[in-house]
Amino acid sequence: MSLTxxxxxxxxxxxxxxxxxxxxxxxxxxxxxxxxxxVRLREDLLLLEHSQxxxxxxxxxxxxxxxxxxxxxxxxxxxxxxxxxxVGTNAPAGESLSGKYHSAVRRELEQRASxxxxxxxxxxxxxxx
Length: 129
Hints:
The chain has a domain at about 40-129. It is mainly alpha-helical. It has 5 helices and no strands.
């Protein structure tokens, strides 16, 4: 069977595969855009707060807090690490918006961990047998 004959016979499935591949690339691109947009918002919060633009920083803070339940675990951990560097571990949370966001991220991670705990215990017990 020649290559042209194969392409003619299978042009519709091959076209469908090409469209599917392009769609997958667009999905991956959108994930990357969403993550970079979140990082930009987090850094905007820090910049606005440092520049004494309290009203604008408050708006960005509200937007970030509303996103928390939809964020992936990796993004939450990145936020926690970045904010820990800026805010510090011993700083009171109520003094700044970045401190409040740091506390909100920590609470979200703790809630997710508590929801995962029963499954983790169950899988640990299965590993013992």
